[in-house]
């Protein structure tokens, strides 16, 4: 059951405790303290309910300010990859500047060597289906990657 956790004119945050999936639907342009508060609420929601899947619906989100992008790279991304999240589905923005900013964050996540699988989708239904697939595959892959990293570190 989808529960609304937080809502303002720029973002709606929700979660489904049984499915361990949450998400954010973004609207317009959110900057500065309001942007950072919304992003930190996403992290809090993920941690509080130990969510394994997240749907970032960025289709109506406009650009991310350079200072907010920098903050996201330094604060948000490291915390995201350390969270319980295993899958992040993204519905890309119709605004090019936003797509570029999100791509930068995804690249940083992918370069972290953590377990987070990230995919872009055109349709919300397809993204939700992927998020609801069994989690065991990611857990096994993460365990294998961690063992390989540890082995390489010892070599």
UniProtKB/TrEMBL annotation:
- Superkingdom per UniProt: Bacteria
User: Compositionally biased, Polar residues: which spans?
Assistant: 143-155
What segment(s) does the record annotate as region Disordered? 129-155
For this entry, the protein name equals SpoIIAA-like
- Source organism of this protein record: Pontibacter ummariensis
């Amino acid at each position: 059951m989808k529960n609304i956790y937080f809502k303002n004119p720029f973002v709606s945050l929700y979660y489904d405790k049984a499915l361990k999936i949450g998400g954010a639907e973004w609207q317009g342009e959110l900057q500065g303290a309001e942007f950072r508060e919304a992003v930190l609420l996403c992290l809090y929601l993920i941690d509080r309910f130990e969510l394994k899947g997240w749907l970032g619906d960025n289709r109506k989100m406009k650009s991310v300010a350079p200072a907010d992008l920098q903050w996201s790279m330094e604060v948000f991304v490291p915390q995201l990859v350390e969270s319980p999240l295993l899958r992040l589905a993204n519905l890309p923005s119709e605004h090019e500047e936003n797509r570029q900013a999100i791509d930068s964050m995804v690249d940083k996540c992918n370069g972290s060597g953590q377990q987070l699988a990230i995919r872009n989708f055109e349709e919300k239904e397809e993204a939700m289906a992927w998020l609801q697939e069994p989690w065991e595959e990611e857990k096994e892959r993460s365990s294998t990657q961690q063992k390989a990293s540890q082995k390489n570190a010892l070599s």
